[in-house]
C-alpha cells in the first residue's frame, strides 16, 4: 500500500533498512532534533506505512522537517519570511543536505551484511536494529555537544544544548506543531557560532544555566578557536573561519585530527573520538567508555575491569583495536548499532512485526553516565531459563550498585556547580572513582 504524501512535503524513496529516524535521532548522536507525535486524525488509519512522528532541526537558514514510512522519507524546509531566491534551488539544497547529513551514499544494508558475516554477535541483532547509521554533523556543534556529554545523560545534554541555542543564537523563525496537535508554536534557534560563545562572561552565564564545570570548557574552547582563526564571516559559506577550519580536519589523518581536537579544553580521548566519528568522516573510530568495554568483555573476549575501575589509555586502545579488527573499515558505524542494541531504553525497539518502535526514554550516548543500563547485547530467547534466573539476580545486584553510584554522582554534580573545578576531572568523577576503589 503506497503512502499518501503529507501536505507540503516531498518524497525520497528510502527503506527503513537504510535509515531509521526513530533509532538514529534518539541514540545519542545529535541533541537538537524536536520530535512530534503525529495525531491519529492526521494518520487517518493506524497503518504501518503511515508516518507517526515528525522530526525537526533548525539549520542556519531553514528548519528541516522529516517524516518516514517504511519505504519513503518525506521532507520539507521552512524558511524565514525574508528569504528570497529560486524555490527549486532551495529545495535542491535541502535534499543535498539530507543526503550529506545522513550519509546516504553509504549502502547500510550491504554493511549490515558484511558485519553479519564477520560477527555472529552482530548477526543476532541485525534484523531488530536495522537502519542505524552515523550522522555527518557540523563539527563545531558536535564538539561543543560532546563537551557537554562529560559525566552526563542524554536528557541533561539535550537541555544544555537547547539552552546554548536559546541564549546565544537569535530565533530564525517560529513554527506551529504538526496539524491537529494541541501544542503551541515554538521558536527555532540555530546552533550558536564560536564567536557567540567565546566572550569571558559566557562562563558565568552557563554556570547559572546549570552547565557546571563544562561552562568553562565551552567558553575556553570557543575562545581558542576564535583567537586562532578570527571571526570574519565567509560570505560564500556563512561559516566563521574557525568553523571552516574544523571542517578541514576531515582531510587530515585520524591521528592528526585527534591531536588537534585534544588541544581543546574539556576534550579527552573519548570526546575526541566521538567528534572524529560523528562529524569528521573517521568511520573506523570507536569511542570507548565503560559501557562499550562491558560489551567487549561479554562478547569479544576482552579482559575484565581494572582494580580501580578507571579506563586507562592502554585499556581504551585495547578495546578499540579489538573491536576495529572485528568490524573493519566502518567499525565506528557497527559499534553504534551494538551500543544502541544494548541500551535499556531500546529494549522494545524493533519487536513490532510491522515497524520499529520509538524508544520511550532517552538513550545514552558514548561519554554519558550509565543510568542503570545493563551490559550486554539483548538477544531474546537465546538463554536457558535457569541461566536467565541467575542472570536476573546478578542484574538486580548490579542495578542496586549502579543506583547507589548514580545517587552519589548526582549529589556531587549538584555540589560541583557551586564550587570551583581544578579542570582535570569533575567532583562526580572523583566520587565515582573513590567508590570503585572502596
TrEMBL record:
CDD domains: ENDO3c
Main location, first listed in the record: nucleus
Domain HhH-GPD: 148-343
Keyword Repeat: no
GO terms, biological process: base-excision repair, AP site formation; nucleotide-excision repair
Signal sequence, renumbered to the chain: 1-22
Biased composition (Basic residues): 387-399
Catalysis performed (reactions): 2'-deoxyribonucleotide-(2'-deoxyribose 5'-phosphate)-2'-deoxyribonucleotide-DNA = a 3'-end 2'-deoxyribonucleotide-(2,3-dehydro-2,3-deoxyribose 5'-phosphate)-DNA + a 5'-end 5'-phospho-2'-deoxyribonucleoside-DNA + H(+)
Family matches, as Pfam families: HhH-GPD, OGG_N
Region (Disordered): 350-402, 414-438
Residue spans of biased composition, Low complexity class: 350-377
MF GO annotations: 8-oxo-7,8-dihydroguanine DNA N-glycosylase activity; class I DNA-(apurinic or apyrimidinic site) endonuclease activity; damaged DNA binding
Keywords: DNA damage, DNA repair, Glycosidase, Hydrolase, Lyase, Multifunctional enzyme, Nucleus, Signal
Subcellular location: Nucleus
Family indicated by similarity: Belongs to the type-1 OGG1 family.
Protein name, as recorded: DNA-(apurinic or apyrimidinic site) lyase
Organism listed in the record: Lentinus brumalis
Amino acid at each position: 500500500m503506497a503512502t499518501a504524501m503529507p501536505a507540503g512535503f516531498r518524497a525520497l524513496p528510502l527503506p527503513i533498512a537504510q535509515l531509521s529516524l526513530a533509532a538514529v535521532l534518539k541514540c545519542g548522536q545529535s541533541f537538537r532534533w524536536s520530535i512530534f507525535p503525529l495525531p491519529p486524525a492526521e494518520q487517518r488509519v493506524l497503518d504501518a506505512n503511515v508516518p507517526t512522528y515528525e522530526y525537526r532541526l533548525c539549520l542556519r537558514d531553514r528548519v528541516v522537517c522529516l517524516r518516514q514510512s517504511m519505504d519513503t522519507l518525506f521532507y520539507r524546509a521552512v524558511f524565514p519570511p525574508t528569504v528570497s531566491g529560486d524555490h527549486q534551488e532551495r529545495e535542491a539544497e535541502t535534499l543535498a543536505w539530507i543526503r550529506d547529513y545522513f550519509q546516504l551514499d553509504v549502502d547500510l544494508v550491504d554493511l549490515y551484511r558484511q558485519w553479519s558475516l564477520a560477527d555472529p554477535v552482530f548477526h543476532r541483532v541485525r534484523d531488530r536494529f536495522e537502519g542505524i547509521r552515523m550522522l555527518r554533523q557540523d563539527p563545531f556543534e558536535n564538539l561543543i555537544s560532546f563537551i557537554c556529554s562529560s559525566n552526563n545523560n542524554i536528557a541533561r545534554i539535550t537541555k544544555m544544548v537547547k539552552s546554548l541555542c536559546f541564549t546565544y543564537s537569535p530565533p530564525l523563525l517560529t513554527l506551529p506543531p504538526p496539524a491537529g496537535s494541541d501544542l503551541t508554536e515554538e521558536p527555532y534557534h540555530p546552533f550558536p557560532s564560536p564567536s557567540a560563545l567565546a566572550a569571558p562572561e559566557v562562563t558565568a552565564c552557563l554556570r547559572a544555566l546549570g552547565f557546571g564545570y563544562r561552562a568553562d570548557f565551552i567558553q575556553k574552547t570557543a575562545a581558542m578557536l576564535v583567537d586562532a582563526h578570527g571571526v570574519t564571516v565567509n560570505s560564500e559559506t556563512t561559516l566563521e573561519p574557525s568553523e571552516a577550519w574544523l571542517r578541514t580536519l576531515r582531510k587530515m589523518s585520524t591521528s592528526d585530527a585527534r591531536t588537534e581536537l585534544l588541544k581543546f579544553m574539556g576534550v579527552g580521548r573519548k570526546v575526541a573520538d566521538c567528534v572524529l566519528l560523528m562529524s569528521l568522516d573517521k568511520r573506523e573510530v570507536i569511542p570507548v567508555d565503560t559501557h562499550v568495554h562491558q560489551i567487549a568483555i561479554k562478547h569479544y573476549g576482552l579482559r575484565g575491569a581494572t582494580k580501580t575501575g578507571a579506563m586507562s589509555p592502554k585499556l581504551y586502545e585495547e578495546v578499540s583495536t579489538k573491536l576495529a579488527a572485528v568490524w573493519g573499515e566502518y567499525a565506528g558505524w557497527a559499534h553504534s548499532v551494538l551500543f544502541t542494541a544494548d541500551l535499556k531504553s531500546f529494549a522494545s525497539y524493533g519487536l513490532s512485526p510491522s515497524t520499529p518502535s520509538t524508544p520511550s526514554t532517552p538513550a545514552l550516548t558514548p561519554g554519558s553516565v550509565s543510568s542503570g543500563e545493563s551490559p550486554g547485547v539483548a538477544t531474546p530467547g537465546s538463554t536457558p531459563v535457569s541461566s536467565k534466573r541467575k542472570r536476573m539476580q546478578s542484574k538486580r545486584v548490579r542495578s542496586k550498585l549502579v543506583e547507589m553510584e548514580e545517587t552519589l554522582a548526582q549529589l556531587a554534580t549538584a555540589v560541583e556547580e557551586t564550587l570551583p573545578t581544578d579542570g582535570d576531572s569533575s567532583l562526580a568523577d572523583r566520587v565515582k572513582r573513590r567508590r570503585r576503589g572502596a
